[in-house]
Structure to design on (241 residues):
């Protein structure tokens, strides 16, 4: 087994952190520049340009750097092979999800956030007035907190899958992911990824890095929420990259 404590992983962790920081900084940039009247094609272009400016040399997921959805499109879950950015215009009160896939030298980043606009401006989670939108963001935070509490060095992908999906259902939400999973390993080739899904009984600690990215919605709602981070084990403890 090779985990985060291997010599190789210790040597490259800063490289992974740098690429993930590109995605984090790009989301922060998007929050500053997004405004009503922009269309999603513009948002995608701005995000991809910013990632390249910050040091990404390419985008690992089907050459798409930014998956952008708004309004009732936020419930859509689709493979990069089928994804087409819509020409939808951002409204005065809107919900937008941006999922980023920067790459530099075959090192991947993977990061997603749902952004809320109310009365024409991006608002922090604590200040969101729309109760459904605010509760969706809080639910995402709770799921990530639960990940950190539940997972230990021996937890399997399947165990995490069942635990989180049970929590999603009990909380009145549904898992929107088109494959039903909650994340995947971070590797060098897309085809080498393993997923947080049924029948994957290998331990999470068997991979060096993995994403956790629940895509959820209240049952019957037209709005979806997503929050994605990369996690890894350090000295046997799970932490965010």
């Amino acid at each position: 087994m090779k985990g985060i404590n291997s010599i190789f992983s210790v040597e490259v962790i800063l490289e992974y952190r740098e690429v993930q920081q590109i995605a984090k900084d790009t989301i922060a940039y998007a929050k500053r520049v997004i405004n009503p009247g922009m269309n999603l094609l513009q948002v995608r272009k701005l995000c991809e340009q910013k990632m390249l400016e910050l040091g990404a040399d390419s985008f690992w997921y089907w050459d798409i750097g930014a998956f952008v959805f708004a309004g009732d499109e936020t419930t859509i879950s689709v493979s990069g092979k089928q994804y087409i950015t819509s020409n939808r215009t951002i409204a005065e009160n809107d919900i937008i999800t941006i999922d980023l896939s920067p790459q530099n030298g075959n090192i991947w980043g993977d990061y997603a956030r749902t952004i809320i606009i109310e009365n024409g401006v991006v608002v922090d989670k604590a200040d969101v007035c729309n109760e459904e939108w605010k509760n969706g963001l809080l639910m995402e935070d709770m799921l990530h907190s639960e990940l950190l509490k539940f997972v230990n060095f021996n937890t399997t992908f399947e165990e995490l899958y069942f635990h989180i999906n049970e929590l999603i259902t009990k909380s009145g939400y549904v898992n929107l992911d088109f494959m039903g999973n909650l994340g995947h390993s971070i590797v060098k080739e897309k085809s080498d990824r393993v997923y947080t899904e049924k029948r994957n009984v290998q331990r999470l600690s068997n991979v060096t890095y993995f994403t956790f990215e629940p895509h959820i919605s209240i049952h019957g709602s037209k709005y979806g929420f997503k929050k994605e981070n990369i996690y890894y084990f350090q000295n046997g403890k799970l932490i965010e990259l």
Helices lie at 7-33, 40-53, 131-150, 157-170. Residues 7-240 form a domain with the Creatine Amidinohydrolase fold (CATH 3.90.230.10). The chain has one domain: 7-240.
